[in-house]
Amino acid sequence: MDRPAEQIFAMLGENDHRTDLTVSERSKGYAQLAAFDIAPAEIARRAAIKIEHVRAAIRLDAMGDDVKAKADAGQLNFDDILALKEFEDDPKVEQRIISAAGTAWGARHEMAVERKKRKDKARAAELKAELKAAGVREVPRPKAWPYESKAVGVNQLVDAEGNRLDEKAVKTQEGFAAFVDMQNAPVSVVYVCLDPEGMGYTRPRGNTFKSAEQQKAVEQTREAEDQRRAALDVAAPVRRRFIREQWGSAKAAKELLEEATRTAAVNPSELMARNTQDYMAVLAGGSLDNLSTARLDRLQRVQVCRWIADQEEHIADVSILGWTFKTEPQRAIDWFDRLTAQGYGLSPAETDLYERLTVRASDLAAEVQRRAAAERRSQVRKAEQVAAGERLVFTLWPVSEGDRASWELVTGHGKYIGDLVSDDLRQVQQWAVVEVQDEGFVAEQWQEKRDEESSTTYYVMEVDDVDSDAQDEPEAGADDGDDAEPVFALFPVDEDGKPQWWLIHDDFGTAIGELYAGPDEVDRAQEWATDFLASMQFQDTTWRAERGGDLVPDHYRATWPDEQDDGTAVTPGEEYAQ
Hints:
The chain is α+β, with helices and mostly antiparallel strands. It contains 20 helices and 13 strands.
C-alpha cells in the first residue's frame, strides 16, 4: 500500500481518538483513500466503521459546502447522506430535503413527505391507466369535493325506484366519469355523476352548491385541513422511530415505568389503546400473547409499551380537532413536551397542532371562571325578571370562547344546564329547546333581550311550571323518580360545513358522542349510536323518528322494550347507572 495512504489511515486513527476532525474533514480523508484505489470494504476494515458509512463519507465529500456544513453541525448523519441518494434524480427535491435539515430530524421528516408523494404519484398513474383501458372518462378532482361540488359520487345517488346506482353499470355512460383521489389515503378511484339534476337525480341533502366566492373559501379551508392531517400522518412514523430509538431497550423503558404504573393504578382504561400491538413489536420485542408466564422485567416493559401506545393514540385523536381535542388537550401537550425534552424535533404540522392545543388548554383553564361568573349574572337577572311572577325562566347567555361564541343555558335560579360552542344562533337555540324539553317543560319562543351594562344581547324563554307545587327550578329526572327512563336523542348537525350526528343525553345536557356523517346516512348513524349505547349497558335500542319544528330539526329518540323476558320491569342501562 502507498505510503501516503498509510499516512491518511494514521491521521484518521489518531484524530478519531481525539475527535479533532469534523465530519466533512474525515469524509475527505476517506475520499482520498478511495482515490488510491482502496476498496470501501478495506477502508471500513482499517477504520473500524461500517462500509455503508465509508460510501456515505465518499459521497459527502463530493457534495456542496451547504451539505457538509449541516453534517458538521450534526443535522445530517451518514445514514441521511445515503438516504439522499434516493432523490438524486430530482435536484429540486434533494435540495428541499437538505434545506429542511434545520434539526437532526428535519431532513427525515422531509424525506418521509417526498417518499409518500412518489408512492402516491406512482399509484395514481396505475389507476389512471386502468380507467383508460376500461373506457372510463377521467376528470380532475371536482372543486369543493365532496360536500359542495356540482358532481356527486355515484354511490350517493338512487334511481327512480330508490335503488342505489351500480358504479360498474354506469361508469362508462354519458354524464358519468371518475377521478383519482390523491388527497385521502389510500389513493383511490371515485366515480361521479357530473350533473345530477340535469340527469334527473336528486342531490343528496349532504351536498349543496354555494356561490363561486363562498365555494372558494370553503374549499381553501378544507384543503388546508386535509393537508394538515396528511402532514400529521406523514410525521407519525418518524415520531415512532424516535420513540423506538429513545425507549426501545429494557433499560431505557424504565425511565417511563413510574408514570406508566401510576396511570395503571389511577386510570387503567387509558392503557387499552387500539394500536398497542403495533408498539409491542417495536418496543417490547413481541406480542401481548403469553404474558401469563412473563418475568417482572418483561411485564414492566409491556406496561411502558401500553402507556406509550396510549399517548400516541391520544395524539391521533386530538389531531382531528374533535371532542378529545376540546376536552383533553393537556395530555397531548405533556407528551409532546416529553418528546422534545428528549431531543425530538417537531415537524411543522406537529408544531401547528401543539400551538392549537396550547390555545385550547388556556381556554379550558378560563372556563370554570366564566361559568361561575355566568351563574352570578343569572341569579341577578332572575331577581329582576321573575321575582314577582310564577313562570320559570331559561336564559341563553353568550360567553367569549376564543374566536367563537360559547352559549350557556341557565335557569333563572342560576342552575347551570349546559353549554354549546357555536357561531350559529339558530343551531344554539335548537339545542337549547331540546334541553328545555328534556327538563320536562314545553318550549316556547325565545325573546331577545339586551343587557345595557355589558352591551350583550341574550335570549330568554319563559315557561309554565308543569307542577305548581314543585320548586321553580327544574331538576333533571324529578318528574319520573329514581326509575325514570333516560332519554337519548340523535340529531343531524352541520358544524362549519361538516355534517355530523350528535348523540345527546338529557342528564348531561350536551352531546356525549359525535359521528362525522351526512344527514342522509341515517342507518349508519343509528348503528353507531346503538353500539355507543350498548357500551353503556343500554341493550336492544331502537329508534323512533320525531318531527321537528321551527327550532328543532327532525331527529330520532332511543326506545327500549318495557319488560325483560321474565316480565320484570327494568330501566335500560341500569348497570351503567349504578
